[in-house]
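CORE FACILITY INTAKE
Project code: CF-77B
Contact: R.S. (postdoc)
Sample description: multi-component assembly, three entities in total
Requested service: structural model of the whole complex
Turnaround: standard
Below are the sequence entries exactly as provided by the requester. Do not edit them.
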Amino acid sequence: MASLAVWKFASCDGCQLSLLDCEDELLTVADQVTIAHFLEASGDVLPGPYDLSLVEGSVTTSADIARIHRIRDISRVLVTIGACATAGGIQALRNNADVAEYASVVYARPEYLDTLATSTPIAAHVDVDYELHGCPIDKGQLLDTIAAVLVGRKPALPAHSVCFDCKRRHNVCVVVAHGEPCLGPVTRAGCRAICPAVGRGCFGCFGPSETPNGPAQASLLQITGMSEQDIARFYRSFNVEAFAGLAGDE
Amino acid sequence: MTAAATAPPQFGNAAVPVPYRIVSRVAETADTVTVELAPVAQALPVFEPGRFAMITAYGIGDVPISLSGWHGNRPVHTIRAVGAVTRALCQAAPGAVIGMRGPFGTTWDVSSAAGHDVIVVAGGIGLAPLRPVIRRVLAEPTAFGRVSVLVGAREPAEMLYRDELRRWAARAQVEVIVDRAADGWTGPVGLVTALVAGADVDPAAAVAFVCGPEVMMRSAARALIDRGVPAAAVRVSLERDMRCGVGWCGHCQLGPLLICRDGPVVNHPVAAPLWDVREL
Amino acid sequence: MVMTMVDAVGDKGMTMPDAGLTPFTDGPARLIDMDGLRRLVDVLRDRGYTIIAPTVRDGAVMLAEIDAADALPHGVRAETEAGTYRLRHGHDDAVFAHCAGPQSVKDFLHPSRARLWSADRTGDGAVTTTGPDRPAKRLAFLGVHPCDVAALAVLDRVLAGPEHPDPVYTARRDGTFLITAECTEPSATCFCTSMGTGPAATRGFDLALTEVLDGGHRFLARGGSPAGAEVLAELPSRPARPADASAAATAVAAADAAITRRMPAESLPDLIRAGRESPHWDDVASRCLACGNCTLVCPTCFCTTTEDVTDLTGEHAERWRVWDSCFSLDFSYMHGGPVRVSTQSRYRQWISHKLGTWHEQFGTSGCVGCGRCIAWCPAGIDITREAAELAAPRAGNEPA
């Protein structure tokens, strides 16, 4: 039986919890794979190598770098899960800031910290087979990816815009019909367009689509009354590093 | 009613794969296998040379694969592992059931070359769809003129159908060339296009069948035409992504062509102006 | 492993609506009022149809199943411009006076997601394959504007051809009942007059209605097929007087006159062919988000991709077909990478197919002039304007 390992780097655990959230399917998952390493679920750990490793979180310390290389070595297929692992996460806001200053504001004894100046995605350090984007990831994409890896299929992980999914599920476009600010046209699909489905604009939690057009998107946002600064701030969230080119703060 | 059912019934429908069993599997090279298929129950119509099947690895996906031969009444396909689906098909053992849809697309129309000299130019896996052309032409030596078979491969180990090439050489001019030589290779090194000059045929009276990577087909066709083969007598087999095989999905468009329907085999004057447009 | 085929649908083809078909005429036009329209919905429902009609949802006219004519968008107008769409609630009770929302009949006949087949490995190693689901409902479309009736004829040519009829489409299309509403309130993004598809209804419908507000809310009704005439005969109606017919004709003529957006008058396939290497593609690409909206709202864009899925056991496999778009990189993916990498090439593919190569592939234009791609493009890119820009250097003048 194929073995599954789940690993955590700098992250909030939310994406790992997506696996536990697969309540209806979790027993089937457990029937089809040996959950060999998943500390969030169980303290029992089986030794590697592992057929499938799901990696959550970003690399923020030198110890992380050594650990991710080791994990890569013992994983047949390595899949990163979530905005932290695929883009550096919201903690990558520090990449363009002074980490020492941040640390001094947050921690009483910042000298105990041993941290890198940047938060980087897993793929910046090792080869990654598939990336599940999102903050958090989509449960359906997670299950399809596990099923795909088990049978040797390439999982369906589209890189086109969220707009595809809005139209496929017959959402009314919040930009065209309501003049709402929406990052859907430059954001990768995969979330099933859940925000526009409830009438609010996309805020880009899946990161940039395959060929985002930053200037055209900026014109779109300006029409809604956003200033250049507003637009830059709009991009600075879970995928700040991945959106950096669009926000104009490379 | 604005529509009524009048068209004659089709066999099943073009969307649903028909189960076929792999009855034999031959490893041609490190990444390429030839499989002979037999219908589990009902058979698809006869595949003519040039036409293709959409072959399904259940649960993985499907891909267009041209016919590479017949064994009795069983279709034979040669598959190179380049992605998840082809990898699964290449790994499938005899006895495994795969899905077939087809036959789709245009044929090489070998019959119309009767009375002409024949030049076959193949690059890499492009020899597979041309094998039934060569077999047919060599099986009817009185119907066709001189036959020249020019085959290129990246390296000697990637040359398909090596035993058959040797057998063909008894009845036709067969020239092979590789991009990169390896130990023991005594033949020429270079692009298959380089062999066109030495084809022992009357170019003005020849029909050419060309299949391989697009860049190879473009240069080979140019070399053939430069040698005097009429452009309209140069046939090429085009390739694009396909999902349906029958014109529903739109993926295989090349300008005005739906390659699944208007191709894969087209005459050079159809393909050439489209190849000249970048990112078409 | 033994496989058997079970219940594969789609062995039925269908006749293709002929562009040159002589319109069915069934005597003089009748007149129905709002009660007649209500009755129409009841009659269709009694005949077993599921009725799909315009309704208001989330600030747009959306197509939905209705039980009664009350669900129609009474008094609703849609104001559109490139990249914007706003509903206005008017002072009258007009029900068909809105231009195209983001949906069309395509959404129902060529669904955005459809299962093509499923395969199961059974206990003894055999596998059974099941074809696409046969829809339980027969659909009646109420209030389809003539541009969208034309779009349906285009889809018929693409998906219901005699050689390989698409089983998903034909199973839904076969037996539909189509009630067109002649267009009396075009919007600023409409250009059906350039494409020869409206605002008048000439063919392809079972029943045609022309909504008249001037002198009392009423509908001129004409049968377009024997089935349409039969339904019309069941409605409370009276013969249309010359004044009614004239009021209806005036309303449609006014719509015709109100449509000012134009495609260039020259041959669009020639224009597209000549424009393959135009520098204008760079200009479009600077504005284009490659988001795909234009293709997804287009009533004729039919492109799809497939997704193969398995359950976690791997014993059950399915293939799903989902709407795709030539704006995605994956659309032109070959081993080695996509063919159309630049946005220039992807926009060019779309407009070239729509206005040019569609003719070679299917013997008709792919564009019906509904204007959806203009209104629902977040960036407000306008197909008529881009075509004019391509035409300008040829005509030696500036675009209008």
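Facility notes:
- Chain B touches chain C through 54 residues (CB under 8 Å).
- The mean pLDDT of chain B is 94.
Invoice: internal transfer
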